[in-house]
Design goal:
The complex is a heterotrimer of chains A (357), B (342) and C (326).
Chain A (H helix, E strand, L loop, with lengths): L1 H10 L16 H10 L4 H23 L30 H37 L1 H16 L2 H11 L5 H11 L2 H15 L2 H8 L4 H37 L10 H10 L12 H25 L30 E2 L10 E2 L11
Antiparallel strand pairs in A: 1-2
Chain B lengths: L9 E12 L6 E12 L3 E5 L6 H8 L7 E11 L5 E3 L5 H7 L4 E4 L13 H12 L5 H14 L16 H12 L6 E5 L7 H18 L2 E6 L2 H7 L2 E6 L2 E7 H6 L4 H7 L40 H5 L12 H6 L3 E2 L8
Parallel strand pairs in B: 3-8, 3-9, 6-7, 7-8
Antiparallel strand pairs in B: 1-2, 1-4, 4-5, 9-10, 10-11
Chain C lengths: L1 H23 L8 H8 L6 H11 L7 H13 L14 H36 L8 H9 L3 H14 L20 H37 L3 H8 L4 H19 L1 H18 L5 H10 L3 H29 L8
The chains are: A mainly alpha (357), B alpha/beta (342), C mainly alpha (326).
């Protein structure tokens, strides 16, 4: 996969951005390889790998836990051991099982909220960017209001007020309150795409508005949409964990936040039971990191300037890494009278001869 | 300063300069083995289509080429007035900073974005003076900034303006004034008037010619518009596919272009003055740097291509089919199999 | 000036939207929370307070929605946010007035420090890209993924475990009475070190990453090349040309960040039992004290709006293009 990806990079010169209309022309095999290209970045590959791991854990987690996460035992507040990898709670519950079982709730809420928020962001952002006029201003104002209102508090209030809780409700509430950032970015992207030739051309040939949006605009916005989806997922995961941690009712299932909630309320800290809260917190941090890494990959894919110029680990002829800098083009010249041509080099800083003023 | 120094004393010598984009296997050669000499007080024009490597050459010789540009060979010798020649490519960072602007200044293509949007004109004129003449007092720098604006025909009360408050022509004139701030020996101009309308182009070019007469700096003038060069420059070099394909005194190139590419370029733009020529342009598009044609890079587009063009690379040399007098009167060279070297 | 007035109008509109959302949320609550409260405190609630709660909760079924809305706005205009259920009969406004200064000081200091430090580190890591400073990227990514409150928990545990007497709970020594004297302020500052540190560490990475990206993007602008061509010192090009321009989007991105910082502050306050709004929020959620929750929400929203207004003024000063042509 990596070689296919780099081949594509080579043939396209690595300079064509995915927003180039030709780049996303309906050449399915080529565009599929293009979409995989972002995995050639080690950051993105590590992130995607970790994400896959958590997704699998979310699916199979509840079936593979060594113990029932709620079952009490006589091993009260035990440090990690072979029997209990992450130790036990004050009731003798197995923390490893709680963390593994809780992955599903976390991933489910993150995924659901990301889906809802992305759908709303596309609907509101693309519409307001494409249509223009009064409706556009109104949608833009709505977006800005939701951007400024502290969503976390709103989520806390709404979920504590709602009679029935549960992961689905929490996910929906988070999704409905956190679409604004994505909508703003998509609006800006749509505004700039709208003026591109290929959209103008489609309009001139009389294609219907919805056809243009679905077949011309959205494919070009896909990277931004996916990046927004992942951003919302990070946010939703954090929010759900915070809700569970402060004891908002309705999240009866095990998740990483409830583990922390019990650790906090049972004074795990005062008793020195570090194992009670360290694994869940690390799991949050690793999941968050993996999502961020995937997003970096997408960012670098969309904005080639953020890439390390495809020169990762590039070395000059003298074996020293060449650092690309704006304003000081590196000079990599083999010394001509060196018997073995190409081995010696005058680096950009090796010889200095100041200009006498 | 005397007007129009036509002396043969070189001020900037580019020797076998090679510039690549990228390192290792993925790199492409954008400038190939280019040698060019700028003499004191002359205007040397450099023309070619976009992608011919002319801007890469200018950025490369000043080491301003952004990543992934890399200089892979050659020398850029600068002859200081009354000092030893230095190789710009072998200067240390500090030496390069000292050299820049004081000896060689540049007016860039994207004049619209050449000024920092958040600082005033005065601050941008003064910071370059402060960087090179740290002993100068603030009031002296301000006086110099005023002087520079006057020099390019802008009222000194514009000193406090921000770039967005100036018109495109004014911004470009500010850039020209800035380029002259330290009275450099060489000014490189990279398409300085391309973004402006024709009237403004004429005004600025006339001013430029006037300033050069008064101050006596040398100019390397880069443009895709050959007819502009014919009028303003002393000598012209034509670039194609990263190489110089023809170099000649401006009048000779205009009257008798030898390389078919030069001929095509001359007919691609209406001349600003003089007799009208029929516009024809050049069919086809510039070569892809990643897959350069064999032999002469121009042969796929050349109306006069014949057998050797496809396989053998013609080298830049004085054409044998021009008279001795023609060759010595003002050296001209061409890289074309139609006019092989003597 | 026009720009400023536009922003001001927008914030007034947002404040109105937040108030209106606040008006509708309690109407989602099933049953009659006021009745439940009255039953709990049988006979001890004065009828005036009950009437006020009914207005705020929209439980007065005899009124039209519009009349309820205007009555609600009138109450708010007089600073009447109702009476806290859990601290009965203290008015919500009194509780908030006591808690707000703590939160504002903590969040304000954290915002300023993390913005300044994060932006500076972002400038360096963006400018020196490709150097050893690149390690900043993965490290900050990881740190930004750690919930601030969890880092707080770890810190509290560590402080306790090493047997330090450094304060990890509360806003001041329990023996002191809040008063503007040096002992009290000294104690308050000592208590705020850890919460402040947690907030700065976890919110700083966002600024580092966005500033780094902006530095890289700005780095390819023409005026940076011109600055290098002018032979200016590296420091001058980095700060006066690149960073000065890269800063602008960061300042305008403030609106998103300030909400997140306040969210983190709420959580960190809970972990450290810090006597601010967040701690009150926890109490409110624990005892389903709706008037207090809503008061907290309104209060924080207004604080966010004010912070945004300040950021807009900063932007106005930093970007000459938004200023009036002179």
């Amino acid at each position: 996969m990596a070689t296919a990806a780099s081949n594509t990079a080579l043939t396209s010169g690595g300079s064509v951005t995915p927003h180039d209309p030709e780049a996303t022309a309906p050449d399915s095999t080529r565009s599929r390889r293009r979409h995989l290209r972002f995995l050639s970045s080690p950051k993105a590959a590590v992130g995607a790998g970790l994400l896959l791991f958590f997704t699998i854990l979310a699916i199979v987690g509840p079936y593979i836990t060594p113990y029932d996460p709620s079952a009490r035992s006589n091993d009260l507040l035990q440090a990690p051991s072979w029997h209990h990898w992450f130790g036990t709670t004050h009731l003798g519950q197995d923390i490893f099982s709680q963390v593994v079982d809780g992955t599903r709730s976390v991933m489910y809420v993150g995924f659901l909220a990301g889906l809802v928020a992305s759908a709303l962001a596309v609907l509101i952002g693309v519409t307001s960017g494409y249509l223009g006029g009064f409706a556009s201003d109104l949608l833009s104002a709505l977006t800005n209001v939701f951007l400024v209102i502290p969503a976390l508090l709103l989520i806390i209030i709404i979920t504590s007020s709602l009679p029935t809780g549960g992961e689905t409700v929490v996910g929906l509430v988070i999704g409905f309150t956190s679409w604004a950032w994505g909508a703003r970015v998509l609006r800006a992207q749509t505004l700039s795409l709208r003026r591109r030739d290929f959209i103008e051309a489609a309009r001139a040939t009389g294609e219907s508005t919805w056809r243009i949006i679905a077949f011309e605009l959205l494919p070009n916005l896909s990277a931004v949409i996916i990046s927004g989806f992942i951003g919302t997922m990070i946010y939703a995961v954090m929010s759900e964990i915070i809700l569970a941690f402060i004891g908002v009712p309705g999240l009866a299932d095990w998740n990483w936040g409830t583990v922390l909630y019990w650790a906090q309320s049972q004074q795990a800290l005062a008793q020195g039971a570090w194992w009670w809260f360290v694994p869940a917190g690390l799991a949050i941090a690793i999941l968050g990191t993996s999502l961020s890494l995937v997003n970096f990959g997408i960012d670098e894919f969309v904005n080639p300037r953020l890439r390390n110029n495809g020169e990762r680990g590039a070395k000059g002829a003298d074996g020293r890494p060449v650092r690309m800098r704006v304003g000081f083009t590196p000079v990599v010249i083999p010394i001509p009278d060196e018997p073995e041509a190409g081995t010696g080099v005058i680096g950009s800083t090796s010889t200095s001869e100041d200009v006498a003023q | 300063m005397s007007s129009k120094v036509s002396g043969k004393e070189p001020v900037l010598e580019i020797q076998n300069l090679c510039v690549d984009y990228g390192l290792g296997k993925e790199s492409v050669q954008a400038v190939r083995d280019v040698s060019l000499t700028l003499h004191r007080g002359e205007v040397l024009g450099l023309a070619g289509e976009s992608g011919s490597g002319k801007s890469t050459l200018a950025y490369g010789l000043t080491r301003l080429l952004p990543p992934p540009g890399v200089i892979t060979g050659g020398k850029v010798i600068y002859h200081q007035p009354g000092g030893d020649p230095v190789d710009v490519l072998r200067l240390s960072d500090a030496g390069l900073r000292q050299f820049r602007w004081a000896e060689t200044s540049i007016v860039f293509q994207g004049a619209m974005n050449s000024l920092n949007p958040v600082h005033t004109v005065a601050s941008q004129l003064m910071d370059v003076i402060a960087a090179h003449e740290p002993k100068m007092s603030k009031s002296a720098r301000l006086a110099r900034a005023k002087e520079l604006l006057k020099l390019v025909g802008i009222s000194p009360d514009r000193l406090g303006s921000y770039p967005h408050q100036l018109s495109g022509g004014m911004r470009q004139r500010v850039m020209i004034g800035m380029a002259l701030a330290l009275e450099p020996q060489v000014v490189i101009m990279d398409e300085p008037t391309t973004a402006l309308d024709v009237v403004m182009q004429r005004q600025i070019l006339r001013q430029l010619v006037d300033l050069r007469e008064r101050l006596g700096f040398s100019v390397l003038f880069i443009t895709h518009d050959l007819s502009l060069l014919v009028e303003f420059s002393d000598r012209i070099a034509i670039m194609y596919g990263g190489r110089i394909v023809e170099e000649a005194p401006a009048a000779k190139l205009y009257k008798d272009p030898l390389h078919p590419y030069s001929h095509g370029l001359l007919n691609a733009f209406p001349p600003l003055r003089g007799e009208r020529r029929e516009l024809s342009g050049i069919p086809g598009s510039p070569p892809d740097l990643r897959s350069m044609p064999t032999g002469c890079a121009f042969h796929p587009r050349c109306p006069k291509a014949f057998d050797p063009c496809r396989t053998d690379l013609p080298l830049l040399a004085a054409p044998a089919d021009r008279t001795e007098e023609d060759r010595t009167g003002g050296e001209r060279t061409v890289a074309c199999w139609l006019h092989p070297g003597a | 000036m026009k720009y400023f007035l536009q922003r001001l109008a927008f914030y007034l509109f947002t404040a109105w939207a937040a108030i209106t959302i606040n008006f509708f949320i309690p109407r989602l609550i099933p049953g009659d929370p006021v009745m439940a409260l009255i039953n709990k405190n049988r006979g001890q609630i004065d009828s005036h307070a009950i009437a006020s709660l009914y207005i705020l909760f929209g439980l007065n079924k005899h009124q039209s929605l519009w009349d309820q809305y205007t009555a609600y706005l009138a109450k708010l205009a007089h600073g009447d946010l109702g009476i806290s259920f859990s601290n009965f009969p203290t008015p919500v406004s009194t509780i908030l007035a006591n808690a707000l200064p703590w939160t504002i000081c903590l969040a304000g200091a954290a915002t300023i420090i993390s913005f300044a430090l994060g932006t500076f580190l972002g400038v360096l890591s963006g400018w020196l890209r490709g150097s050893r400073l690149d390690f900043v990227l993965p490290v900050t990514t990881f740190i930004s993924s750690i919930p601030a409150f969890w880092l707080g928990l770890l810190t509290v545990a560590t402080v306790i475990a090493v047997g330090s007497t450094f304060p990890v709970s509360g806003g001041y020594d329990p023996g002191l009475i809040p008063h503007a004297d040096t002992t009290f302020i000294g104690s308050a500052i000592e208590h705020s070190w850890l919460p402040l540190g947690m907030l700065v560490i976890t919110t700083m990475s966002g600024w580092i990453l966005s500033m780094r990206n902006m530095m890289v993007t700005v780095g390819s602008e023409d005026y940076i090349t011109v600055a290098q061509a002018k032979g200016l010192s590296d420091r001058r090009v980095m700060f006066s040309y690149a960073a000065r321009n890269a800063l602008l989007p960061n300042v305008s991105g403030f609106s998103l960040a300030i909400g997140q910082i306040l969210g983190s502050t709420v959580l960190v306050e809970i972990v450290f039992n810090y006597p601010g709004i967040g701690y009150e929020m926890l109490q409110a959620v624990g005892s389903t004290d709706y008037p207090l929750m809503q008061g907290v929400f309104l209060c924080i929203t207004l604080a966010v709006l004010v912070a945004n207004l300040l950021a807009d003024i900063a932007y106005l000063i930093l970007d000459p293009r938004t200023r009036k042509e002179g």
